[in-house]
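Colleagues,

For the teaching module next term, I've prepared a clean inverse folding example: a structure given as C-alpha cells, and then the sequence designed for it. I'd like students to try predicting residues themselves before seeing the answer, so please don't circulate the second half yet.
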C-alpha cells in the first residue's frame, strides 16, 4: 500500500518520499514516451510517522488506564456483594411452622399452604425494591399468563417480603398490581403476598432456601439476587429458578416434576445466579474508567476516520492526476 511506503517503524522523524504512479520500476521503464510528454508525473506524499506513533501510544495508554480503573471497580463490586449469594439446597426442608400475615390481614402459617402432590412456588422480594424485584415479579406474572397451570389450581404461589417494615396494605397493593398482568381471576386464590414484622422468621426461611441477602443501612435497600424456589407438598426444596426471563413451559415442567416427587439438579452451567439488586455509589475509579473508555472510543474513531479520509483523499487525488495526465498525453498525441 502506498500509504505506508517508506515508513520505518523505528524512525520518529517526518519522512518525505517520492512515489511513482507506475506499478513498478519495470513498468515505468516500459512506459511509452510521447512527444513533449516527458516522464510520467511523480506525486509527493507527506507521512508524519511521529504523529502516527504518538496517536497509537496515547490510545494504548488510555485503554490501559481504563482497564486498571475497571479492575478496581470490579473488585469494589465484589466487596460490596460479599455474603449476597444463593446456595442451592435441593432436598432441604423449610420450616412450615413460621407465621406470617397475608394480604387480607389474616395470620397464617406456611404449613397451611402445603399438601401432598401440590407444589408451592416461593419468591422472596420486597415492595419498595427499586429495581430487580419488580422486574422479577413482572416477568413471572407474564409467564403465569401463558402457562397452562394456574396458581390456586395446580400449585400455590407465595411472595414473601424480606422487609419487616412492610405490612398487609403494602402487600395488597403489590398483589393487585401483578394479578392484573396475569389476567386470570382464579389466580387471586393461589397467589398470596405475605409479610411479617419478625425479621428472625424471614431469616429462618431464607437460610433454609439458601437465599442470603443483607440490608444497606445507608440506603435502606436490600442487596439480593434474583431467585425463585419450588417446594413440593412435603416442604422439601425441589427446584430453583435462576435470574429472570422465565419461560412458561420451563416453569410448568418444573412444577409438574415437583408434583411428581422429582428433584432438580444444582447449577451445572457455571452461570448460577448472576443478577444482583442493590444501590451502588459510583466511586472515582468507576468514573475514571467510564471517562477513559469514552475518550479511548472517541480517539479510536478519530484515528480511524482520519486515516480513512486521508486514504480516500489520496486515492481520489491520484486518480484525478492520472486522468489529467492521460488527457494531456492524448491531446499532445493528436
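(Answer key — instructors only)
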Amino acid at each position: 500500500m502506498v500509504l505506508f511506503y517508506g515508513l520505518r517503524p523505528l524512525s520518529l522523524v517526518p519522512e518525505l518520499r517520492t512515489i511513482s504512479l507506475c506499478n513498478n520500476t519495470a513498468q515505468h521503464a516500459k512506459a511509452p514516451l510521447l512527444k513533449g510528454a516527458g516522464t510520467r508525473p511523480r506525486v509527493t506524499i507527506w507521512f508524519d510517522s511521529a504523529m502516527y506513533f504518538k496517536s497509537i501510544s496515547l490510545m494504548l495508554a488510555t485503554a490501559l488506564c481504563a482497564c486498571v480503573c475497571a479492575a478496581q471497580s470490579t473488585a469494589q463490586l465484589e466487596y460490596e456483594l460479599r455474603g449476597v449469594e444463593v446456595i442451592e439446597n435441593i432436598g432441604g426442608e423449610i420450616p412450615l411452622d413460621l407465621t406470617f400475615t397475608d394480604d387480607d390481614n389474616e395470620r397464617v402459617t406456611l404449613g397451611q399452604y402445603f399438601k401432598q402432590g401440590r407444589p408451592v412456588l416461593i419468591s422472596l422480594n420486597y415492595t419498595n425494591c427499586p429495581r430487580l424485584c419488580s422486574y422479577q415479579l413482572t416477568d413471572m406474572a407474564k409467564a403465569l399468563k401463558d402457562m397452562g397451570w394456574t396458581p390456586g389450581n395446580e400449585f400455590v404461589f407465595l411472595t414473601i417480603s424480606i422487609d419487616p417494615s412492610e405490612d398487609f396494605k403494602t402487600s395488597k397493593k403489590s398483589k393487585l398490581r401483578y394479578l392484573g398482568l396475569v389476567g386470570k381471576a382464579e389466580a387471586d386464590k393461589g397467589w398470596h403476598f405475605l409479610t411479617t414484622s419478625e425479621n428472625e422468621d424471614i431469616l429462618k426461611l431464607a437460610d433454609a432456601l439458601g437465599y442470603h441477602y443483607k440490608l444497606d443501612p445507608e440506603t435502606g435497600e436490600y442487596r439480593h439476587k434474583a431467585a425463585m424456589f419450588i417446594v413440593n407438598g412435603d416442604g422439601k426444596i425441589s427446584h430453583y429458578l435462576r435470574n429472570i426471563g422465565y419461560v412458561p413451559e420451563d416453569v410448568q415442567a418444573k412444577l409438574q416434576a415437583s408434583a411428581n416427587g422429582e428433584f432438580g439438579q444444582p447449577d451445572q452451567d457455571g452461570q448460577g445466579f448472576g443478577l444482583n439488586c442493590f444501590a451502588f455509589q459510583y466511586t472515582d475509579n468507576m468514573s475514571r474508567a467510564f471517562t477513559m473508555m469514552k475518550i479511548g472510543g472517541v480517539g479510536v474513531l478519530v484515528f480511524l476516520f482520519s486515516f480513512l479520509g486521508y486514504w480516500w483523499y489520496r486515492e481520489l487525488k491520484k486518480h484525478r492526476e492520472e486522468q489529467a495526465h492521460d488527457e494531456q498525453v492524448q491531446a499532445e498525441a493528436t
